[in-house]
Amino acid sequence: MTQLLPSSFLFRYNFPVKYAGGLPRRGAKLLGLAREFALPNLGSLDDRPAICEVRLVWNERGLGIGLSVRGSTRATHDGPPRAEDRQFQIWIDTRTTPNAHRASRYCHHFGLFPQGGGTTGTKPLVRQYAIARAREEAPRCDLADIQLAAQVEKSGYELEAWFPIATLHGFDPETNPRLGFYYQFTDDLLGEQFLAMAGEFPFGNDPSQWATLELVQ
User: Fold this and answer.
1) CA geometry: angle 19, 20, 23, nearest 5 deg
2) Which of 5, 132, 147, 197 is 20 to 30 A from 208, comparing alpha carbons?
3) pLDDT tens digits for 107-166?
């Protein structure tokens, strides 16, 4: 019998996010997170292989996200790297509302890129997007406040981002230690990976489909 819905759609997800007080660091490694900070690969519920690993951390100053990708990084085009070839999109709700189907002013959508920034196109890059059908839009943050670091090698790439409190409207771990969260990773060579359900579901504008993060110490 054919299964009408993917297995990953049948559950609500709640993940603990560990605390680390000394972050972000200075230099090439903003976070340097160990595997104990990684989210599980929920795609395995639907027999989708993992092509990246996502790691999360928090403290009173903000939220950190790390992406680790293993696989070919050869160029597929002439000229400088194109940001759109490798994008890590994240959705964050600082006042998680798991039953709301439309985004509020606390819902944020960012795109992170290991390359595409700077004058040569080789620096990491971040963009902020509007969320379709939102009841209210999140305030636009100063993207220069978001710290980025990336290492691109023949065997893959690492991307780290630190979001200070000022860049996440409503972020208050003391009174609201639960966040809504979702991600979509896209690589022109390796394919796509999602936190849970794949692209046929409207997770991009429906916060009820996002997972819950528990900020723990």
Assistant:
1) 135
2) 147
3) 999 999 999 999 988 999 999 999 999 999 999 999 999 999 999 988 899 999 999 999
CB within 8 Å of 152: residues ≥ 6 apart = 73, 114, 115, 122
**Taking CA 32 as the corner, what is the angle to CA 109 and CA 180, rounded to the nearest 5 degrees?**
30
Residue with tokens 């890590």: 88
- For residue 1, being part of any structural domain is answered with no
How far apart are the C-alpha atoms of 178 and 90, rounded to whole Å? 16
pTM of the shown model: 0.91
Residue 165, amino acid? I
3 assigned to some structural domain: no
Structural domain that includes position 185: 12-215
Beta bridge partners of 28: none
Q: Are 156 and 73 in contact (CB under 8 A)?
A: yes
Tokens describing residue 154: 């023949």
Q: Which of 204, 207, 209 is nearest to 132 (CA)?
A: 204
What CATH number does the domain containing 133 carry? 2.60.40.1190
State the total domains in the chain: 1
Q: How far is CA 64 from CA 33, 73, 98, 210, in A?
A: 9, 24, 22, 18
Phi, psi of 80 (to 5 degrees): -65, 160
Closest CA to 180 of 205, 143, 150, 149: 205
